[in-house]
Write a structure and sequence with these properties.
By secondary structure, this protein is an alpha/beta fold. The protein folds into three domains: 131 residues, Chitobiase, domain 2; 329 residues, Glycosidases (TIM Barrel); 233 residues, N-acetyl-b-d-glucoasminidase (Four Helix Bundle (Hemerythrin (Met), subunit A), Up-down Bundle), CATH 1.20.120.670. The chain has an eight-stranded parallel beta barrel. The protein has a four-stranded mixed sheet with strand order 1-3-2-6, with helices on one face. Strands 10-14-11 form a three-stranded antiparallel sheet, with no helix packed on it. Helix 17 packs across helix 18, helix 18 packs antiparallel against helix 19 and helix 19 packs antiparallel against helix 20. It is globular. The termini are far apart. 53% of the residues are buried.
Length: 739
């Protein structure tokens, strides 16, 4: 049966048929490999080898089948005591195997830990399993994911990430990496030299906001070697996505130009676009101007030469802009038509992808869209009102139901999972329905594996999930075993009814602790939507999972994460007590409580150091691989450090805060220690506390080059047990004082 993986295997003729979405618009249909004359299953087999090893992959017969009118599907069955997966593209075959891993083999592969304790002989399904995609668009990644998740990534990282996204049923992936090379190549045609362009293009970690037309430039020019390496990576990413029948989604051209464009190109109408969080936005070339069509044609020519073809292009004119502004007198309806016309001249029938976010897309942009060639990926599906009418608001433009469960890479557990389970189906069943799939868009993606699994499964279900059963199955696949471990099930049931049962608000993005906030007695984020001790109860259960199931990276990740969260939410309890002691001039109480705070920060740093995914050292080490000289490293180091601390402007400092070893034990600890010392001095002298410039403090740290551990250390199970006992003792002492 090895022959089924050969280059001439399973060549079938496949049809793409789009069905009407509504009387007003046709759906944004996206061709994958199944749109062409045939496809080879070899890329899917190779992905399985990478994911589970050759011995197991060779036990799977992968079969290409024609795509029916309704869209993608996969079928899991057995024949002659072999596992058979049928699917409508290589990526769909991988998605079918992902479903098999979850619901037959009870194994789990995510971007945040794995459990692959699979028998030597693959178990077979008791009966055939068929899952049909309920929408054509299964989009992944936020515009800013590249910055907040892994701006200095290797091909090995992205090869695995693409495999895991396919395993979860994704068929469209945003590719921002390397796009600076397109601008560098294209604008040399319009009077710019490379030396000017590398001063305009930001460093890698901050580039997503440049592509979103929010900012430009970095303190130091980006190195040519960085540009070239990122372009090479992007080409590999795009090629692999196409091999798997997935669509690379590239940024399109909608008018961002370097400074001085009108001086170099006579008659060009260029307008300023104001500021964004303290940054000067790039200039905007009027899409109604003849120069726009010329630049767009050169942009798409250079992009296609570098990265190949796509049929989807992401563009968000005036992202987070002001509705009702004059925008330099530009007619936005006509500008929208000009942007889309330029895209379609370069790529006939291409889909324009826009982000639904705050005021975006602005009403005149919606008005000007050719809605048969557009898709809005809704970033607010989970946070808006249940009766929101996207069909009216976006005038029947096809859209994908989206989630942004995470802002800035915050290391918080939880999501609006119960909201997804209700609202997705409510919106899908509306008589006038323009929803055509899902959009997975946390601002950083290598986290929250339960949320990733549940959300992507929405696209393959026919009805809402039974949440009790889903979390029972999740606990089983996450940690393995012949049957679900009762303590694992109990732990996840607690999380199901607390951290994963957040309301339809923005709160899920801010369920973080206070250790990583800029020091203040009044530091706070949005309130928790569950009792803090629920996390401790879940941790107590997870600690009791059977010893045989504790060896996977999935278990170690979750135990680290849950212990981290238990300490993080306790900070919300402690800080008001510190404030009360200070206001009461209670020196003894203040000393005791601040010592407890700093102790817990040290304990938290040690917990985080047991798992590479929660460590600053690897983040910086990966960035350093892009530097060829000390000067290049100084610029890259500042880029990587500043994004997750000061960001680059006081208005957005600490937006990308995260609980990582090194950040907690060094940067955040030093800030709180300095602050508490200033408060203690005020108590001792009766004066006022010293005012500290935290941005300047962060700027100094971001310029530093202190090295941090890159290898994890410590026994997380032992450490988590000790911390739980400490937290329990502390909580009991507080309760006794209340009594």
């Amino acid at each position: 049966m090895r022959g089924v993986f050969g280059p001439v295997s399973c060549l079938v003729t496949l049809l793409w048929l789009a069905s009407p979405l509504s009387a007003q618009a046709q759906p944004a249909v996206v061709p994958t490999a199944a749109a062409y004359a045939s496809f080879d299953t070899t890329p899917a087999h190779d992905a399985l080898v990478r994911l589970i090893g050759e011995a197991h992959a060779n036990q799977v017969d992968l079969r290409a089948v024609a795509r029916p009118r309704q869209g993608d599907f996969f079928r899991i069955s057995s024949q002659d005591r072999r596992l058979v997966i049928e699917g409508t593209s290589p990526a769909t075959l991988i998605a079918g195997f992902g479903w098999y891993l979850a619901y037959v083999a009870h194994a789990n592969i995510t971007l945040a830990g794995e459990q692959r304790d699979i028998p030597d002989t693959l178990p077979l399904p008791a009966k055939p399993i068929v899952q049909e995609a309920n929408g054509q668009n299964r989009f992944a990644l936020n515009d800013v994911d590249e910055g907040y998740t892994e701006p200095y990534a290797s091909w090995e990282y992205w090869e695995h990430k693409i495999d895991v996204l396919a395993l979860h049923g994704i068929n469209q992936v945003l590719v921002y990496q390397g796009q600076e090379k397109v601008y560098e190549e294209a604008f040399q045609t319009f009077g710019y030299g490379r030396d000017e362009l590398v001063r305009w293009i930001p460093q890698a970690a901050h580039q997503p906001w440049w592509l979103l037309q929010n900012l430009c430039c970095s303190p130091e020019p980006i190195a040519q070697g960085v540009i070239d390496r990122r372009a090479e990576l992007a080409r590999k990413m795009a090629d692999r996505l196409r091999q798997l029948g997935m669509m690379p989604v590239f940024p399109g051209f909608y008018g961002t130009v370097p400074p001085g464009f009108a001086k170099r190109n006579k008659g060009a109408h260029v307008v300023p676009t104001g500021e964004w969080d303290g940054y000067q936005r790039p200039d905007w070339l009027d899409p109604n101007d003849p120069w726009f069509a010329r630049v767009a044609a050169e942009f798409y020519r250079a992009q296609t030469a570098l990265f190949g073809e796509s049929r989807m292009y992401k563009m968000d004119p005036l992202h987070e802009g002001i509705e009702g502004g004059d925008h330099g007198g530009i007619d936005l309806v006509a500008a929208t038509k000009g942007i889309q016309a330029a895209l379609n001249r370069a790529h006939p029938d291409a889909i324009w992808v826009l982000l639904g976010w705050e005021t975006n897309p602005l009403p005149p942009i919606v008005e000007g869209l050719d809605k048969s060639h557009a898709l809005i990926v809704d970033g607010e599906s989970e946070a808006t009102l249940a009766d929101t009418d996207r069909e009216t608001e976006w005038k029947d433009t096809p859209y994908a139901f989206g989630t942004i469960w995470n802002f800035g890479g915050h290391t918080n557990i939880g999501a609006n999972l119960s909201v997804w389970n209700e609202r997705f189906w409510q919106w899908k069943k509306k008589p006038r329905n323009a929803m055509t799939g899902v959009a997975l868009m946390p601002e950083a993606s290598d986290n929250n594996p339960a949320a990733l699994a549940f959300f992507t499964e929405l696209a393959w279900r026919k009805e809402p999930a039974n949440l009790d059963e889903w979390f029972r199955q999740w606990a089983w696949r996450r940690y393995g075993g012949a049957r679900p471990d009762p303590h694992a099930v109990a732990a996840w049931h607690i999380l199901q009814t607390s951290a994963y049962d957040l309301p339809a608000t923005w709160d899920s993005k801010y369920q973080t602790g206070y250790f990583e906030l800029a020091p203040s007695l009044y530091a706070h984020t949005l309130p928790l939507d569950y009792a803090p001790d629920r996390i401790e109860h879940a941790l107590a259960e997870l600690l009791q999972v059977a010893p045989a199931l504790r060896n996977s990276s999935a278990y170690r990740h979750d135990l680290t994460d849950l212990t981290r969260q238990a300490l993080a939410v306790r900070s919300r309890v402690l800080l008001p007590e510190i404030n009360a002691a200070f206001e009461a001039r209670d020196k003894a109480g203040f000393d005791r409580l601040t010592a407890q705070w700093l102790h817990w920060m040290q304990r938290l740093d040690a917990v985080l150091g047991t798992n590479r995914q929660f460590m600053l050292g690897p983040w910086l080490a990966r960035a350093k691989t892009y530097a060829k000289t000390p000067d290049e490293w100084a610029a890259i180091n500042y880029d990587a450090r500043s994004l997750i601390t000061i960001w680059g402007r006081p208005d957005v400092a600490d937006y990308a805060r995260r609980e990582w070893q090194g950040l907690v034990g060094d940067y955040y600890y030093a800030r709180w220690k300095l602050y508490f010392d200033s408060l203690k001095k005020a108590l001792d002298t009766g004066g006022k506390a010293e005012r500290i410039d935290w941005y300047a403090f962060g700027e100094t740290w971001a310029r530093g080059q202190k090295a941090y551990p890159t290898e994890p250390s410590g026994d997380i199970h032992a450490m988590a047990g000790q911390i739980l006992r400490e937290l329990t003792k502390d909580r009991d002492a507080r309760l006794s004082q209340v009594r």
